[in-house]
Design goal:
heterodimer; A: 283 residues; mainly alpha; 0% strand; globular; B: 666 residues; alpha/beta; 6-stranded mixed beta sheet; 5-stranded mixed beta sheet; 27 helices; 24 strands; 38% helix
Chain lengths: 283, 666
């Protein structure tokens, strides 16, 4: 009996072990193709830039030239001569302010024009025109109005991110199924209850798709805006590096910008997963 | 007292994007009493959901309005809670939260604890305790609908509106939920309006079924009272003697609507040919042995011989359907029960007078009264015996079936009962059941007996379910039974066609009464699209000696199905007069003071005479003499009022002038 039990438990343990192993195996299997692709990319890059008259540095040269910046992102020598951490933080803080403003105002205006038909009819054409204006086109105007560079950059972020948020929120509100509205009407739900129990939960998936588009656009806009306004920030860091012909630093900054953009996108995704009701997930 | 809900002449017009308008509902008027359950039934797109939304206040009618307890409905409100077709639960709230949302909002003035109690009570009521914490996406369709019903009932609406509540569910779940709903409704005395496609569901749940016609301009076509007593359960409803009658009435209505839709697409114009105004005729018949003349005229070429080349025989589900078909001009002509042309002309069952004429008697005799077998074992042999049994069991209601209020079955059954001292309205209960459903109702014990034409008596005898206590030969030998009926305006529009039709059928009648042809006719009748009954049930009385199921030797009844001999076919007036006295006796129609005028209008001896002369047949009306009945009474055609007054068992008789021309002018 005991022997049998022993054998049984061993078998189970074995199978569990193999389960874990296969789990790791699966994970690593997923990582293999991108790793290979990255390796090929690096090799091709190295080969293309290995000739003596190449204009751009290869990966090895880039790594060696920027090693100092990579290992010490926290130095601060005053002025704009700061570590990459501070540069990125400065950019992120601008994005945070501009984007938060855009989210708050965008959702509010979106709900307003989504619920009031006449407002939608009045404002939608204006929004459709403004939405297509490239972010940087706003910069001179905001500089002229605000006189200062930092608020102008924040305004550019705001004006870039706000349109998709407004439009998606409005659509979300308009798309609330008539059935839910009928229930609200029959029960004579108060405005407050209607807002929190029906309108918001029903529109929240749309709002989040607006927010996701908005965050991507604002990160795109900030780099360009900072190049023009100067000061601390990853955009100006790139521009500064170009002016002093530190091409490797440009490449490093681009990689950082890409990674940060990806993380921001994932962050909004994560928040939406927490907030959006399970039943409202869109395929 | 005014009604609880009053739908007051509603019109609903939708503006179309093209600039035109679509009239969805036209002049809908409906009163609903407190505690009543009313179903709206009609084809898709007839506007029944629109009507429900108007009552809910979700939709404003173009004209008219809805009153709830005397106040006009202007906006939606929780006193008219709706159970939506697709449940309309909020997917982000749990079952409990969905119900609580409604309760908290509507009953905000009650203390929190009481509201919680209401929510929990209703969760239990629909049996969802296990699922209370689950979201709608985690439960089945049936459970979702239960939540919706619980949510609706929890706020105690004055009026519960249900929009195809079980439409999306499988049959089993639907059945279960219907039983739950009927129980809840009976317990809470809720007033309900339900939109449904399901006829059985409507019959099971409703007190009244409102049938809407097709749009555009949908209106209430018919309202059917479901008189099945409450509390109901499914078996009780299905076994109720009226159930199949009501069901076929609704299906008949819906089929009519379907056909009306088709007809609109392709109107059938009259085809004139062979010197006749119309050769494409639609003739209605009921599957009975005595539809033989129509079948023979069609199959043996008598119609064609007289130029009627495109005659279609339409098998109808009930006599009511025949009357409706003639009234709506769907049918050109029809086999009718003998009293029908008179009753329709006089106006009965609340309908306006519609002049119908008859120029031919198609058959005489052929009916019998069948009682359930157990009466035979109890020694019932005469109407007096039957009375004794009925009187011994005062707590049991004996229901007897007949086929139409104006049929000879009804009149003869009543006559026979009254002769035995049984009041046909007070001592027993008479109900209309289409002929083919008689045997099934007798078998299930829903009815104690019936009066009907063959083969439905012989069938009960041969299946040992009942016995024939009297044939009509025992009551009034040689009485008229089936007649040819057409609208008076039809007869005026197509006079030559009418005569041709009478000639063809008259020859067919002659053919039917030749016993050498009977085997052949039997084969025709037993075909599925005519009577469709196995030949052995059709034979007794028609070919073979008649068996009564009483153990006595089969009796040869040469006149049992009489189509031609003994001056069968002339629609002479004395018989018509007797029918009118009986219709008045039982309160079915008033007795017309102008009875001579009515008889002349309805019973077209002149058309019959013309047809018979053209065929070279003897054109004589039977003698205008008194009629003798089995109980010894004599009907004197010169003094019908005196005859009426001399009858012992009768209802309040109305004697009034019936003016049919005034209404005709419309």
């Amino acid at each position: 009996m005991t022997a049998e039990l022993d054998q049984g438990s061993k078998r189970r343990a074995a199978s569990r072990r193999s389960g874990i192993l296969s789990g790791i195996g699966k994970q690593s299997q997923k990582l293999v193709p991108p790793a290979i692709a990255l390796a090929i990319f690096l090799v091709v890059w190295q080969l293309l830039c290995s000739s003596p008259d190449a204009t751009l540095p290869g990966p090895i040269q880039t790594l060696s030239e920027t090693w100092e910046l990579i290992i010490d992102p926290f130095f601060d020598n005053g002025g704009t001569d700061k570590g990459l951490f501070w540069q990125i933080l400065a950019s992120l803080s601008r994005v945070a302010i501009g984007y938060t403003l855009a989210a708050v105002i965008g959702i509010a205006v979106g709900i307003l024009i989504g619920t009031v038909k006449i407002m939608y009819q009045a404002l939608d054409p204006i929004f459709q025109v403004l939405r297509t204006v490239p972010p940087l086109a706003w910069l001179p105007l905001s500089l002229a109005a605000l006189q200062q560079s930092n608020p102008s950059a924040i305004f550019v972020i705001f004006i870039t991110a706000v349109w998709p948020i407004i439009i998606n929120t409005a659509v979300g509100v308009q798309q609330i199924p008539q059935d839910y509205n009928n229930v609200a009407k029959v029960l004579r739900l108060s405005r407050q209850k209607y807002f929190f129990k029906i309108l918001l939960p029903a529109a929240v998936p749309y709002i989040f798709s607006g927010l996701k588009i908005g965050i991507g656009l604002s990160w795109l806009a900030i780099v360009a805006a900072e190049m023009l306004i100067g000061g601390v920030g990853i955009g100006f860091f790139i521009w500064d590096a170009w002016n002093s012909s530190r091409i490797s630093e440009i490449i490093l900054a681009i990689i950082y910008v890409g990674i940060i953009g990806l993380l921001l996108d994932r962050l909004v995704d994560y928040v939406s997963k927490l907030v959006v009701p399970e039943e409202q997930k869109q395929g | 007292m005014s009604a609880f809900v009053e739908v007051d002449h509603i019109d609903q017009v939708f503006r179309l994007p093209s600039g035109g308008s679509y009239v969805a509902l036209r002049n809908i008027e409906l009163k609903i009493q407190k505690g009543e359950f009313v179903s709206l039934v009609g084809h898709s797109g007839c506007g029944k959901s629109t009507l429900l939304n108007i009552v809910a206040g979700l939709h404003r009618p173009t004209q008219g309005g809805v009153l709830l307890e005397g106040r006009e409905i202007k906006q939606p409100g929780p006193d008219r809670m709706m159970v939506f077709q697709n449940y309309s639960l909020l997917p982000w709230l749990t079952v409990r939260e969905n119900i609580a949302l409604a309760v908290d909002e509507v009953m905000a003035s009650r203390p929190r604890g009481e509201r919680r109690g209401i929510v929990e009570h209703h969760i239990d009521m629909v049996g969802l305790r296990q699922a209370a914490e689950q979201r709608p996406s985690q439960i089945s369709g049936g459970m979702k609908q239960r939540v919706a019903i619980a949510r609706a009932l929890a706020i105690r609406p004055k009026l519960l509106l249900l929009d195809e509540p079980f439409g999306a569910l499988d049959a089993l779940t639907r059945g279960g939920l219907q039983e739950q709903l009927i129980k809840i409704c009976e317990e809470t005395h809720a007033t309900c309006i339900m939109v449904t496609h399901d006829v059985d569901e409507a019959l099971f749940l409703s007190d009244r079924v409102v049938l809407l016609t097709n749009g555009p301009e949908a209106h209430i076509g018919q309202i059917i009272e479901v008189t099945i007593p409450r509390p109901r359960d499914r078996m009780k409803v299905v076994n109720h003697p009226n159930y199949y009658g009501l069901r076929s009435e609704i299906f008949y209505f819906l089929n009519q609507q379907k056909r009306a839709k088709k007809r609109k697409a392709k109107p059938t114009a009259a085809i004139a040919r062979n010197g006749l105004e119309k050769v494409n005729l639609e003739l209605g018949f009921i599957p009975l042995t005595d539809c033989a003349p129509l079948v023979v005229a069609k199959e043996m070429g008598f119609f064609t011989k007289h130029g009627l080349e495109e005659v279609t025989l339409s098998r109808e589900p009930s006599w009511k359907a025949v009357a409706e078909g003639i009234a709506t001009q769907r049918l050109d002509a029809a086999q009718m029960v003998a009293g029908m042309p008179l009753a329709l002309t006089l106006g009965f069952e609340g309908k306006a007078p519609l002049p119908i004429v008859t120029a031919l008697v198609l058959a005489r005799n052929g009916n019998a009264i069948t009682l359930a077998k157990h009466f035979y074992d109890e020694g019932v042999r005469t109407p007096q015996d039957f009375r004794a049994v009925v009187m011994q069991t005062p707590d049991k209601v004996h229901t007897l079936g007949m086929v139409h209020a104006a049929s000879m079955h009804n009149l003869m059954l009543r006559y026979w009962l009254a002769a035995g001292g049984v009041d046909p309205d007070r001592d027993v209960n008479l109900t209309v059941i289409p002929p083919p459903q008689m045997v099934a109702n007798l078998q299930s014990g829903n009815i104690s007996g019936y009066c009907v034409g063959e083969p439905w008596n012989s069938r009960a005898v041969q299946e040992n379910l009942g016995f024939v206590i009297a044939t009509d030969l025992d009551i009034w030998a040689g009485h008229l039974e089936k007649v040819l009926g057409v609208r008076e305006d039809w007869a005026e529009k197509y006079p030559q066609t009418h005569i041709a039709l009478v000639k063809a059928l008259l020859e067919a009648c002659e053919y039917c009464d030749d016993y050498r042809n009977r085997e052949e006719i039997l084969e025709l009748l037993s075909r599925p699209h005519y009577v469709g009954s196995p030949p052995q049930y059709l034979r007794p009385g028609f070919i073979d000696p008649y068996t009564r199921g009483t153990g006595t030797a089969p009796q040869t009844l040469p006149r049992y199905n009489q189509f031609y001999v003994d001056k069968t076919n002339c629609p002479y007036r004395v018989e018509g007069l007797w029918i009118m006295t009986q219709l008045a006796r039982w309160g079915i129609t008033p007795f017309p003071k102008n009875w001579i005028e009515i008889l002349d209008r309805v019973r077209r001896v002149d058309v019959f005479g013309e047809a018979a002369r053209e065929l070279g047949l003897l054109d004589i009306e039977p003698d205008r003499g008194p009629i003798h009945f089995f109980d010894g009474t004599v009907f004197d055609p010169d003094d019908p009022i005196h005859y009426l007054n001399s009858l012992k068992i009768k209802r309040d008789i109305r004697i009034e002038e019936v003016l049919i021309d005034a209404l005709e002018a419309v």
